[in-house]
Amino acid sequence: KSSVQTIGEEQIQNPYTELLVLKGHQDIVRFLVQIDDCRFASAGDDGIIFLWNAQTGEKLFELHGHTHKITAIAPFSSSDVTEEKTDLIITASADRTVIVWDCASGRQVQKVSCFHSTVKCLTVLQRLNVWLSGGSDLCVWNRKLDLLCKTSHLTDAGKIYLDNFSIFEVIFRLSATNNESEGWNIVEVKRLVEHQDNISSLVSVNDLTFVTGSHVGELIVWDALDWTKQASECNFWDSSVHPDVQPEIKLSQSPHETSVQHLTSDQEYVFAAVGKGIYVYNLQMKRVIACQRTAHDSSVLHIEKLSNRQLISCSEDGSVRIWELREKQQLPAEPVPTGFFNMWGFGRANKQANQAAKKMQENTPVYFLELVGDLIGHSSAVQMFLYFGELGLATCSADHLIILWKDGERESSLRSLALFKKLAQNGDLQLKL
């Protein structure tokens, strides 16, 4: 029997009661990127990029240019004050090419085919008007796709950290050259060797802090200025750390079950997808304050914090779940029994200890994650999602589909308003006749 928490059909706190199914992809859809408030792009193993309207679900453009699966995608808006703002996206593929696309026209702006291996990650540094590609080389490019500089001999660059340019276990510093030409230097400054295994996820908390997670379930908080370790957590699977959670009997734990697949942060907490579970780590207290050790039936692939106290997670089991971080109601501490201990003079000490423990208990709130929504629509692994606020939620899956989840009450109100406007217009037309 599955130990995953369930919710009834009456999902009172779940606003997403309507859905739009977007079809077009012919293979796994792995990536969704937001272009602006109402547009997003999707890409995956079929090598095609689609641009969509998040409000209506309308397919805006179908972009063909790659011959193999898409391995990375990133939005890139021009910041040149002399030009009109242009929304672009950059895509990398297993065909060892990178293409820049114009989102307004769907046209291919430029293509780069000089890579010696597959580009596995793309990061745009908007304030510097450059972008970085990572594969066997780390390359820095300008908006015209001129190669500014590069460093080679990286074994497998899988993720670029925006502020400190960290490629898994290596941190690089990107700096401008002293001359007036558009030149940059990349210098290796630090290797993160504290993890016992490869770093599988990374998130920037703020300008001073970033957090990494490894395949063996370690979470490390780093100082972003001198790259020293501030705190760590490796007890995600220790039942003694989370006594309120029913322990699971297991003969062994594979790395897949303990791997930190994804991290996100709201500067106060770090939210970690670890194996099948999700964990809330308080950065100030330096400990896990809430968890769902079995949030899904399979590995959690993506997790995001909403503007309120809610989280959304998606999994290989095809589900998308909404959680709310809530505070437990504390029960009053039981008094220490008198009698034998008082006979030997221990009563006062125990009373003081009990009062101190009670005070600590009262001052330390206990949190838990409650399931408030379960979105069932995909038939295979949900790779990731995008949250558009009032416009809803977009999810992509290995079932080749994209689903737009809509607030049912809001959509009903919009339809009623549109109907009243239409009736009013028809009434005015009849009066004129």
Automatic annotation (TrEMBL):
Alphabetized InterPro entries for the sequence: WD40/YVTN_repeat-like_dom_sf, WD40_PAC1, WD40_repeat_CS, WD40_repeat_dom_sf, WD40_rpt, WDR41
Location(s) in or outside the cell: Cytoplasm
Repeat in keyword set: yes
GO biological process, alphabetically ordered: autophagy; regulation of autophagy
Cellular component, GO annotation: lysosomal membrane
Pfam families: Beta-prop_WDR41
Keyword Cytoplasm: yes
Key words, A-Z: Autophagy, Cytoplasm, Repeat, WD repeat
WD repeats: 22-62, 63-111, 293-333
Record note on quaternary structure: Component of the C9orf72-SMCR8 complex, at least composed of C9orf72, SMCR8 and WDR41. The complex is formed of two protomers, each individually consisting of one molecule each of C9orf72, SMCR8 and WDR41. The protomers homodimerize via an interaction between C9orf72 (via C-terminus) and SMCR8 (via N-terminus). Within each protomer SMCR8 (via DENN domain) acts as a bridging protein between WDR41 (via C-terminus and N-terminus) and C9orf72 (via C-terminus). The C9orf72-SMCR8 complex associates with the ULK1/ATG1 kinase complex.
Role according to the record: Non-catalytic component of the C9orf72-SMCR8 complex, a complex that has guanine nucleotide exchange factor (GEF) activity and regulates autophagy. The C9orf72-SMCR8 complex promotes the exchange of GDP to GTP, converting inactive GDP-bound RAB8A and RAB39B into their active GTP-bound form, thereby promoting autophagosome maturation. As part of the C9orf72-SMCR8 complex, stimulates RAB8A and RAB11A GTPase activity in vitro, however WDR42 is shown not be an essential complex component for this function.
Designated name of the protein: WD repeat-containing protein 41
Organism lineage string: Eukaryota, Metazoa, Chordata, Craniata, Vertebrata
Gene: Wdr41
